[in-house]
Amino acid sequence: MSELGKKRWTCAEFEKALPDLFERAEGGKLSADPQFAEILRDCPQAAELVRDLEYIAETARLLMEPEDEDPSTDLWSKIQREIGSDGVAAKESMQ
Amino acid sequence: MEVQGNRMTQINAAPPTGNFKRNPPIAGEADALERAKNGDPDAFSKLYALHKRRVYTLCLRMLGNVSEAEDMTQEAFLHLYRKLGSFRGESAFSTWLHRLTVNLVLMHLRKKGLQLVSLEETINPSEEDAPRRDFGSRDPRLSGSVDRVALERAVATLPPGYRLVFVLHDVEGYEHNEIAEMLECSTGNSKSQLHKARLKLREILRQNEQITASQESK
User: Fold this and answer.
1) Counting runs of H as helices and runs of E as strands, what totals does chain B give?
2) Could you list the residue range(s) of the whole structural domain that residue A8 is in?
3) Which chain A residue's Cα is nearest to B198?
4) How do residues A18-35 score in pLDDT, each as one tens digit?
5) Do A93 and B155 touch (CB under 8 A)?
6) Terminus-to-terminus CA distance in chain A, angstroms?
7) A7 assigned to some structural domain
8) Cα separation of B97 and B77, whole Å?
9) Contacts of A15 in chain B (CB under 8 A)
10) What is the pTM of this model?
11) Residue in chain A nearest B142 by alpha carbon
């Protein structure tokens, strides 16, 4: 068991340490770590906080694949115009 | 539109080392990449079509502004056009393009007013924006039915500093040491900002749930 696991937490200490504890937790899943089972059982408010923050982080991963947000249709025309006026410097970099 | 050619040549476009499997192979990308490197304009158009949505979405999430996101998407593809020859395939192309885009957006934000002051100080939002939380206080739980649309809306309302760290870490999968390097802050600051961002999101999402519940009960 790690030093963190041996520590006797108060609820306040545990909540204060959460940024670090989340970072150290396997897959960011603090609630699944047995060394924190006791403090999460003893501090229901901390357990709810952990549960919510884990849920937010999990849901955030769904945002990685964009669904239906495209840039405006004329953006490509603007890029083409800029490329056209970019001249030799652009071509050189592509060789 | 200003193009930041010289400074961007120094950008470290190393692949992120996060846990996310963000870059499955894209059909047709490798061929388009090779042809675009050889100056084929149709191939570059294909790369734009393949990646415009992810680049634009990334810009939009980081900036929270449609107009700026479009400008930075344009900037990213122009920069890509110029620097395509320097892509050596050491990471997935989309990883490389993502990192290039992140760096461009951060450079843009610094040019808007953050360049002379450490981001470590300036990304901290005002006390009014900070999540209010008393240790030991008991709050209503999130219902567990927060969907991506609700979260997306909540992220858009975060203060810029929180939003940046949240998007880079929780959405894009960058590690705190990478974020610290990008934002020129400490890893401790990145962790702290992420935690505050999540707390703030929890607060926003709970408020939204309460509003919805009270509307439904009327």
Assistant:
1) 10, 0
2) 3-61
3) A53
4) 999 998 888 888 999 998
5) no
6) 56
7) yes
8) 9
9) 135-136
10) 0.78
11) A52
